[in-house]
Amino acid sequence: MNEYLDNARRSIQRAMSSSYHSLSTVASTAGGLAATTGMQLIGRLLGLKAQASMDSMADSRTTSSTDLGSPSAGALDEQQTRLVSVVCGFPKDIVMYPDYVRGQFGEDAWFKTSTSKADTLGVADGVGGWRVYGIDPGLFSRFLMRSCERLAHTSDFDSTRPEHLLARAYCNLLEQKQPILGSCTACVLTLHRESGILYAANIGDSGLLVIRNGAVVCRSVEQQHHFNTPYQLAVPPPGQGLNVLTDGPECAALLEFDMQPGDILMLATDGVYDNVSEELLLQVLSHAAGVTDPVKLQMYANSVALMARSLSFNPHHESPFTQNARRHNIDAPGGKPDDVTVILASVV
After folding, report:
1. How many CB atoms lie within 10 A of CB 305?
2. Which of 267, 304, 298, 272 minimizes the C-alpha distance to 285?
3. Could you read off the pLDDT of 8-57 as tens digits, one per residue?
4. What is the CA radius of gyration of the chain?
5. Spatial distance between the Cα atoms of 95 and 336, rounded to a whole number of angstroms
6. Of 22, 72, 293, 318, which residue has the fewest beta carbons closer than 10 angstroms?
7. Is 87 within 8 Å of 110 (Cβ atoms)?
8. Cβ–Cβ under 8 Å, residues 159 and 190
């Protein structure tokens, strides 16, 4: 394994040996990481080590940050399954997106929300090719995810049918008086509290995986028309419908899986899956099994996002994208620079 990857992994392992000193530090760090690159990332992560305590986090630690974890346990039935979830990511072009904005990392978008019936999460990856036509690819993905988050709180939301949620959000986008042009991949999932069943709808090459007992026990199906051309929801410019690849919500690949306490769920865009192998993901995330403290869970999410970010710009990395390209007789060495979004959740 090349020296660059070894250095990244050693940095991650050092960071994973400690816990952050407060939840407010984690929240500010997640945003700060999104505004730094290269060796600054390593320096920031190693800097956190000096602030970390080797002892376990105190039971009295506050968990009030809106971006970390789920609603307080006291507000939920303790007998029901729920998710403790955190988010981390990086925009590909940090100059273009210098500030952290909740719900987006570059052209990627995400949401996570909870009700008494279910936890609902989603990621979407705006198709960057629209930028050459003067269209911001991030607008489409952000609107879609914000609509999903809002609709997940309506009285008629069916927490066992995430494909309906995705379809309604897409229809909402189509109905806008001011057209929102573009396209994106999307993966939306719900964890039904009463049954403990995970339901997911996936369009394209974003997706989810579930880790249990050190192994991947569930993974969403990637949808590609052909190499590097994923399925995608789209709204083309007027008169260009026949020239734009468009897949409807009915094309979503559906998934059901019976979750168990201690399972680790990762929902991510292809900026992760194209650059980090399943083997490396397991090496990091297997240690997160049973972690319910959002502060500690954030550490693992940051590690995965940092690893994906670092490897994406490594020209010598034997990435999953490179391996897949080779199978199609295409020469595409190194990592694939892209926006990175990771939502990491622990089942409790």
Report:
1. 27
2. 304
3. 445 444 544 443 333 334 334 433 433 333 344 444 443 433 333 222 23
4. 19
5. 18
6. 72
7. yes
8. yes
Domains along the sequence of the chain with CATH = 83-347 (3.60.40.10)
Length of the chain: 348
Sequence-ordered list of residues with C-beta below 8 angstroms from that of 327, at least 6 positions apart, any chain: none
Q: pTM (2 decimals)?
A: 0.81
Q: CA-to-CA distance for 141 and 125, rounded, in angstroms?
A: 6
The CA angle 114-116-119, to the nearest 5 degrees, is 30
Tokens at 229, concatenated:
């051309």
Work out the number of other CB atoms within 10 angstroms of the CB of residue 177. 4
DSSP assignment, residue 92? S
Annotate 194-208 with DSSP letters as a single string: TT-EEEEEEESS-EE
Place of tokens 């410019």: 237
Q: How far is CA 123 from CA 89, 112, 183, 247, 262, in A?
A: 11, 9, 13, 17, 23
pLDDT digits 0-9 by tens, 197-228: 999 999 999 999 999 999 999 999 999 999 99
CB of 303 closer than 8 Å to CB of 12: yes
- 167 Rama sector, left if φ>0, alpha if ψ -120 to 50, beta otherwise: alpha
The owner of tokens 């991030």 is 138
Contacts of 3 (CB under 8 A, 6+ apart): none
β-sheet bridge partners, residue 74: none
As a whole number of angstroms, the distance between CA 151 and CA 172 comes to 10
List own/partner pairs for 59-65 with CB under 8 A and 24 or more apart: 61/22, 61/23, 61/293, 61/295, 62/23, 63/23, 63/294, 63/295, 64/23, 65/23, 65/24, 65/26, 65/27, 65/294
Q: Give burial (CB, 10 Å; 0-12/13-18/19+) of 153.
A: exposed
